[in-house]
Write a structure and sequence with these properties.
globular, 6-stranded antiparallel sheet, 4 domains
């Protein structure tokens, strides 16, 4: 920790001392101050924890955690209390109920099985000693002595540090500071990427963030529909509530919102592709190899969803992008395969996109107005020429053939995605796929293939009982259809949706999809002169990949200087 702190001190000296000199000479202290506030108040140098959710807790584990001076929190059905003077006897947990301190009241509504819940440095020492036990029992307000059988707890969370996510955040924090220091008047360099409309699902009275919608639809000409699986909603839910909220420094134009209930047999999974086609899959098969740079096998990284990501950070291929080449066994006689991945866009990709926007300077608004009148097909072609979506190819006798792409989903949350692939013309007993994108623009956690036929399932469109905007207006009618009627969200505005859910049959489960179409605008003010020489390069295929590699090299160079400074101390 001392070494890391010394590196931060070195960064502060290298950045803020030169900035102070510039500010005195050019009277731009306001920019220095704004940059300092931006870096201080942004998501720099956060820590992350994982919940380690279990459906129960053993008496021996409770005794051990108590001996380690963990802080126990009991979640009753109607209240939440701290537990002190803990001991376990005859499979019963005993203690004294106390009011929660403010320090231990900040992480009470974390959803189950979360692996990347962020906490600020000052809260780390409190969050990482917490043990959360959940019971269906109600608390009597007069109760102060607690006694409950270990079997009465239906969920146990033992928080611990997620080292991988924490280290990644710290690396990106350094990179963001490095890039921000290169352009003082560009104050948005570390406001990481497309936030897009934010979805929060109600969980026992608390709205938990789920994901963003139609990331990358930053003009009306890029408007599209997203099919977001609401995986945190129980399959047998009787009602569902969620809200769609505006993101900071943005405005949303929401065209349509639907809730789909897909009823399927137990043991079957369902997903919607980017066109809204719903496919079932059973048990995916892992790749027999996953090669980067045609030699390094990263199969072990992609065989399960565990937040061990491949970040498309290898050398550029012949097309000028990073890729991974997956080989799967192919049963004889199959005509279709379903590729299933778990992935997200990266924070780094978002940062690089911000740097690209900054190149327009005060010409950005004119450029955006032009894009609002452009042909959507031309915009889509530009995005695919830059490999900003995750491009998928299949190897045939005539070489690599483009199949389709996975759309941008943003960097706020990862999700499962599916793509159907025609295999009728693939001979032999293997299938080779290539997944390709711009340098460090995607994190992929899992990749598998399924050859099963589509199982039977039914799809219901659930009508909302209530659609209310934060200004109390009823927006139910406006959001019924895909038309040119939009709900406009600005500042801190949001819309809440409530549904009553019909019961499923005894032998069926349900997965819910939030279907929403629209687009959004970034409202950040960009200043300075346009860098036309640099912008002209982006007319070329693969320019974003080159730009990303250049920026990352700059960050690496400064990291090397930091390392040298640290070694000399």
């Amino acid at each position: 920790m001392k070494k890391f702190n010394s590196k931060i001190s070195a960064i502060a000296f290298l950045i803020f001392f030169p900035l102070l000199i510039i500010a005195r000479k050019k009277k731009r202290a306001v920019y220095v101050f704004a940059l300092f506030i931006l870096i201080t108040l942004s998501s720099c140098f956060l820590s992350f924890y994982r919940t380690n959710t279990k459906p129960s807790i053993a008496a021996a584990d409770a005794s051990r955690l108590s001996s380690e001076n963990k802080y126990f929190i009991i979640h009753f059905s109607n209240s939440t209390k701290g537990l002190e003077n803990i001991y376990v006897k005859n499979d019963t947990l005993y203690g004294n109920l106390v009011h929660l301190t403010p320090e231990h009241s900040k992480n009470l509504n974390t959803e189950a099985n979360r692996k990347t819940v962020r906490i600020r440095a000052k809260d780390k020492k409190y969050a990482l000693i917490e043990v959360h036990l959940y019971t269906a029992a109600q608390l009597n307000n007069n109760d102060s002595v607690f006694a409950a059988a270990m079997s009465s707890f239906n969920r146990a969370d033992v928080y611990e540090l997620n080292k991988g996510a924490t280290v990644t955040n710290h690396v990106l924090s350094i990179a963001g500071i490095v890039i921000a220091s290169g352009a003082i008047i560009s104050l948005i360099a570390f406001a990481i990427a497309c936030n897009c409309p934010q979805v929060y699902v109600d969980n026992n009275g608390a709205y938990n963030f789920t994901s963003g919608l139609y990331s990358g639809a930053v003009y009306s000409t890029l408007e599209r529909t997203d099919y977001l699986p609401l995986t945190t909603v129980p399959y047998n839910a009787k009602d569902i509530s969620y809200k769609i909220a505006n993101a900071k420094n943005e405005e949303q134009f929401i065209n349509k919102v639907e809730l789909l209930q897909v009823n399927h047999a137990t043991g079957i999974n369902v997903l919607a592709d980017r066109y809204g086609n719903i496919y079932s899959y059973e048990k995916t098969t892992a790749p027999t190899s996953a090669l980067i740079d045609n030699k390094n096998d990263i199969r072990n990284v992609l065989t399960q969803t565990d937040e061990q990501y491949y970040s498309f950070d290898n050398n550029a291929n012949k097309n000028g992008f990073s890729d991974v080449r997956l080989t799967f066994e192919k049963p004889s006689g199959v005509n279709n395969a379903k590729l299933v991945i778990h992935a997200r866009n990266t924070y780094w990709g978002g940062l690089v996109h911000k740097e690209f926007i900054n190149l327009f300077g005060d010409e950005f608004e004119k450029w955006r107005a032009k894009q609002e009148k452009a042909d959507p097909k031309d915009l889509e072609k530009w995005q695919t020429d830059q490999a900003l979506p995750l491009m998928v190819y299949i190897k045939t006798n005539d070489g690599w053939k483009f199949v389709d792409y996975f759309q941008l989903i943003g960097n706020t949350a990862s999700r499962d995605m599916i793509m159907q692939i025609d295999t009728r013309n693939i001979t032999g007993n293997t299938i080779e796929l290539k997944l390709e994108t711009a340098y460090r623009f995607w994190d992929m956690d899992f990749a598998g293939i399924d050859y099963s036929n589509n199982s039977s399932f039914s799809v219901n469109i659930i009508k909302p009982s209530q659609v209310i905007k934060s200004d109390s207006t009823d927006e139910k009618e406006v959001l019924l259809n895909s038309d040119k009627q939009y709900v406009h969200l600005i500042n801190d505005e949001f819309i809440t949706f409530k549904y009553s859910i019909p019961a499923t049959s005894n032998n069926a489960e349900a997965l819910y999809f939030l279907v929403s179409g629209g687009y959004y605008h970034n409202l950040e003010q960009i200043t300075g002169k346009a860098n036309y020489n640099e912008l002209l390069k982006f007319k070329q295929q693969g320019a974003f990949d080159k730009f990303s590699r250049k920026k990352y090299k700059e960050a690496q160079d400064v990291a090397m200087i930091m390392k040298q400074i640290n070694s000399n101390q």
